[in-house]
């Protein structure tokens, strides 16, 4: 298993564009990934993309030049969750 040196967390859901919600290096990166796993959030490993997203400020929308890279990650998550585009805008269904 590779050592996590940098991690970021994006939120899309009801946002028009994905937003950077968390970022960190070393121990904080480990904590971000651990919390994502605890919540059942899918994790993509892309050090280059994490580095680019890590340059953003917290709560900043991703810039247009990263749309395609983030869209690839989102399409993977949609596939894993059995979602289709637009599902992320629907309110969560209570169990």
Topology:
Layout: E1 6-11, E2 19-25, H1 27-38, H2 47-53, H3 67-81
Antiparallel strand pairs: 1-2
Helix content: 25-40%
CATH superfamily: secretion proteins EscU
Main β-sheet, spatial strand arrangement: 1-2
Q: Which strand-content bin applies to the residues?
A: 5-15%
What is the total number of structural domains?
1
Name of the top-level CATH class:
Alpha Beta
In terms of per-residue confidence, which ranges show pLDDT below 50 for 5 or more consecutive residues?
none
Cα-atom Rg, whole angstroms? 13 Å
For the sheet with most strands, the description reads:
2 strands, antiparallel
Task: Give your account of this protein's structure.
36% of the residues lie in helices and 14% in strands. The mean pLDDT is 89. Strand 1 and strand 2 form a beta hairpin. With 95 residues, it is α+β, with helices and mostly antiparallel strands. The protein has one domain: name from scop (3-Layer(aba) Sandwich), CATH 3.40.1690.
């Amino acid at each position: 298993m590779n050592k996590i040196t940098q991690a970021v967390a994006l939120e899309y859901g009801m946002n028009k564009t994905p937003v950077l919600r968390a970022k960190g290096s070393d121990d904080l990166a480990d904590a971000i990934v651990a919390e994502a796993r605890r919540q059942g959030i899918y994790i993509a490993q892309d050090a280059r993309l994490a580095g680019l997203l890590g340059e953003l400020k917290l709560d900043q929308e991703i810039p247009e030049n990263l749309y395609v890279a983030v869209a690839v990650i989102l399409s993977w998550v949609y596939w894993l969750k059995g979602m289709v585009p637009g599902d992320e805008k629907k309110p969560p269904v209570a169990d």
